[in-house]
UniProtKB/TrEMBL annotation:
NCBIfam families: PRK09357.1-1, pyrC_multi. It comes from the Bacteria. One of its GO terms (biological process) is 'de novo' UMP biosynthetic process. The gene is pyrC. The active site is at residue 304. This is Dihydroorotase. InterPro entries: DHOase, DHOase/Allantoinase_Hydrolase, DHOase_cat, Dihydroorotase_CS, Metal-dep_hydrolase_composite, Metal_Hydrolase. Pfam families: DHOase. GO terms for molecular function: allantoinase activity; dihydroorotase activity; zinc ion binding.
Length: 434
């Protein structure tokens, strides 16, 4: 591995400085730092340095749906988006509900070498919501699973949810809940509102999300466990989590870039690219999740990168699949919605997209501060450049991005994963990281 010397980098937006990296570790940060022996020099003039981004919620689709994404293609997209670690959701085929599947996913991630892949383990066998999965075996496996989720499906049975919460305590794990009451959302197609009535699409009421979150908060308090709320999307959900944190309940929450940006109005196009679970909500909800992210009620931004093959999206709204890709645009959306309007600074971005997700997932060596002694996981971004999102500049194997045809601020110029350059001057470095 080549030593690196980064000059003129604005660490978290501060004054330009130098960063020395030796054998994959940051050894010095400051204007007086000197180049390590044989170092490749990276001139970061005009670039902001952030810790490598960490996604707590990525669908990599392997095993089973390799036409939509593979561990290789999804992690390549992650590196392009400035990530150095992703958590791979368990709703694969076969489901990641046992040690051998999570070890396989972790192995594929290590082989690809683009980012650290942390597999998420299913809560229930085959995501059926009936029997607990082999949680302990996954936690103790080589994949060191700490995040458990039936994402895509809600752990609806309160007894099963209670048992899962109790179980993860013994290995400091967390249950990440996809909060969706299945009965209240039977056949649902978009947010329930006057608009869903007008469009003739079956409504998905906010209460379907909020009632599950309320129950889970009470359960987490009752058993004293760690709960994480996936892709929270309504003002009421923000209120519930705010209330729970005040009471000292051990809860964390995430919001997606798309819920920070889009409203339900996108459904008027009937373009299934905007069909997602949970659905895009009202303007008031978008305002509330932004506010929740600013005041710390919402801990992190997670992509919920959900690639789907063309045939699942190139169709009528009613039959289209739920989900949108997000790894390549997440940081830009956070800049657009939070940094540019002055609601967040770069240190906040580092917190919600790197250090906090690493802490929730209990990932050592990720999300560390940019200082001597930390693992060299970094992303260098040009905050000014705007880029046009088009169908042919997608790195993911799928193209179901809602940002196509739009322009977003910020470009990832360099990504450095454990001291290896995965993106250089905006280009993916095929092979260099191996
Ligand atoms: N978000 C989505 O709309 N879809 C996800 C599942 C999920 O995150 O619930 C998927 O796996 O496609
Ligand atoms: Zn989900
Ligand atoms: Zn998901």
């Amino acid at each position: 591995m080549t030593n690196l010397f980064i000059t003129n980098a604005r660490v978290l937006g501060q004054d330009p400085t130098s960063i020395a990296i030796e054998n994959g570790t940051i050894t010095a940060v400051g204007p007086d730092a000197t180049a390590p022996a044989g170092a490749r020099v990276i001139d970061a003039n005009g670039l902001i340095a952030l810790p490598g981004l960490v996604d707590l919620h990525t669908h990599l689709r392997e095993p089973g749906q390799e036409d939509a994404e593979t561990v290789e293609s999804g992690t390549r997209a992650a590196a392009a988006g400035g990530y150095t670690c992703v958590h791979a959701m368990a709703n694969t085929n076969p489901v990641a509900d046992n040690a051998s599947v999570v070890e396989q996913v972790a192995h594929l991630g290590a082989k690809a070498g683009w980012v650290e892949v942390r597999p998420v383990g299913a809560v229930s066998e085959n995501l059926e919501g009936k029997h607990l999965s082999a949680m302990g075996a996954m936690a103790q496996s080589q994949a060191h699973v700490r995040v458990f989720s039936d994402d895509g499906k809600c752990v609806w049975d309160p007894v099963l949810m209670r048992r899962a919460l109790e179980y993860v305590r013994s290995f400091d794990g967390v249950v990440a809940q996809h909060a969706q009451d299945p009965r209240l959302t039977d056949g649902a197609q978009m947010n329930e509102s006057p608009l869903s009535g007008r469009l003739g699409l079956a409504g998905w009421p906010a209460v379907a999300e909020e009632s599950i979150i309320a129950r889970d908060l009470q359960l987490a308090q009752h058993v004293g466990s760690r709960l994480h709320v996936c892709h929270l999307s309504t003002a009421g959900s923000v209120d519930l989590v705010r209330w729970a944190k005040k009471r000292g309940i051990n809860v964390t929450a995430e919001v997606t870039p798309h819920h920070l940006y889009f409203t339900e109005d996108q459904a008027t196009s009937y373009d299934p690219r905007f069909k997602v679970n949970p659905p895009l909500r009202r303007r008031e909800d978008v305002e509330a999740v932004r506010e929740g992210l600013v005041d710390g009620t919402i801990d992190i931004v997670a992509t919920d990168h959900a690639p789907h093959p063309l045939e699942s999206k190139d169709c009528e709204w009613q039959v289209g699949a739920f989900g949108m890709t997000g790894l390549e645009t997440a940081l830009s959306v956070v800049i657009e919605t939070m940094v540019t309007p002055g609601k967040m600074c770069w240190a906040d971005v580092a917190r919600v997209m790197s250090s906090a997700p690493a802490r929730i997932g209990r990932v050592a060596g990720q999300g560390q501060p940019i200082e001597a002694g930390s693992v060299a996981n970094l992303t260098l971004i040009d905050p000014e450049t705007r880029r046009d999102i088009t169908l042919d500049n997608q790195v993911s194997a799928s193209t179901n991005t809602p940002w196509v045809g739009r322009s977003l601020p910020g470009s990832v110029e360099w990504t450095i994963y454990a001291g290896r350059v995965t993106v250089a001057e905006g280009e993916l470095q095929q092979g260099d990281h191996e």
